[in-house]
Design a protein that fits this description.
Radius of gyration: 23 Å
Number of strands: 22
Largest sheet: 7 strands, mixed
Distance between the termini: 51 Å
Helix content: 25-40%
Strand content: 15-25%
Strand order of the largest sheet: 9-10-11-2-12-20-13
Structural class: alpha+beta
Length: about 525
Amino acid sequence: MSRNSTRSAGIAAGRLSRREFLGHATALGVTATFANSLVAGAAKAQVPHRGGILKAGLAGGQSTDSLDPAIAGGLVPGAFGKCWGEMLVEVTPDNGIEYRIAEEIGSSKDAKTWTMKIRKGIEFHNGKTVTVEDVVATIQRHSDTKSNSGALGVLKSIDTIKASGDEVVVTLKDANADFPYLMADYHLIIQPNGGVDNPAAGISAGPYKVAVDQPGVRHVGERFAGYWQSGKMGFADQVEIIVINDTTARISALQSGQVHMINRVEPKVVDLVKRVPGVTIQNASGPGFYDFNMLCDTPPFNNNDLRIALKLAINREEMLDKILRGYGSLGNDFPINSAYPLFSDDLEQRAFDPDKAKFHYRKSGHSGPILLRTSDAAFPGAVDAAQLYQQSCAKAGIALEIKREPGDGYWSDVWIKQPFSTAYWTGRPTQDVMYSTAYLSTAAWNDTHFSNEKFDKLLVEARGELDQGKRKNLYREMAIIIRDEGGVIVPMFNQDVDATSAHVGGFVKTRGSLMGGLALAKCWLTP
């Protein structure tokens, strides 16, 4: 394919802020120039130090974890993937786009044909050079339903993908002004031949090479001497993730110096952790939320009156106060909050109403206890949240039984598979990506088995709508459908609460736990 008008305008490599991207959406066919001046000021002033072993004690790992990016679902595979994997683009702290393997991205006027220029000279860990064909193969593998990729939902709109010289040309079935954000999905780690030959080999072009991979126990990366941006990432000689799913043990490991950073500090112990000498609490708001998932196609949750009853029977104010201790905000049973630029804040907040819950429960015709499966692996305080929910359900005449599942295997054996369970989402950079990943009827990670033809049509329409006012209204309509007909109960949006020792340099508070998973790759040990 010949160079299009966008390319001829001379797209500069760098970063595009979310505000700039939306502001120029109507001119996508003219230019897609990305600014390179957006930097995280706090980190810029610090001088990186090389050497040592940077260690993290993380919750969110299990024995069933895999290095295959397609099926990476927990916090540990995600964080380790950011160490050894390299992406086409990354999302910046201000929710803009930073180019990585993709040097430039431009679109046709109708936002249906997108061209990505692939950067030359980037080396894979196996010594081979990253090619356009590797990028094409990666996207093709993740868009194949047989891969069971978590990125499948956001790639459904792709019609064709092909290599053309040093470019990858993607044609969409429908217009999508957010296409660059789709390429930032953390599953889309670029691998040799797309990972087709051995998807779990752990070979990409990131700052660290996989040295140890013990799922559920320990992961180690060694600095990759051939990394193409060694001045920006990969400062430690080694990075090590120790899987510590127990909250108390994680804090003890940080306090004793066994590790330099931890994730998932439970709000109820934040004040205690703040008193530990040399430890800093790193909390940041974002799009992440804790949820209770009902499978809409599985009895008794295929009855919407029962789903409504369970949504009305949760005391979200109490849950926010007792579980998050102020480190979060109320949810309204759809997965979007003010972290998204096109969020509609005028929707009536659903409140705890045991009388209405009792009415819908009786109308559903269901009787007998309802089983909720939960685990500490679901989110910090998940078991306590389930018990609070049990108490509020009782006030509505609903008998809720709780089964505490083991953390190891929770994401492979319970999530998406069991009719009613607790879970969490870290959120996504845009509403389209969030909805496409988890609520599109054909999405691989549709964890409520939600299927609504009108919702699917609105999602496609919103993707191609370049008028931001109209697009916001479409998302508002979609939110109402999820809230009133969906299987997800979202009582609260959480802040990500991490903690670091005084030996960690370069840490920047940003949306997503541990700098969006990039803390090990971007931070360093201070002298």
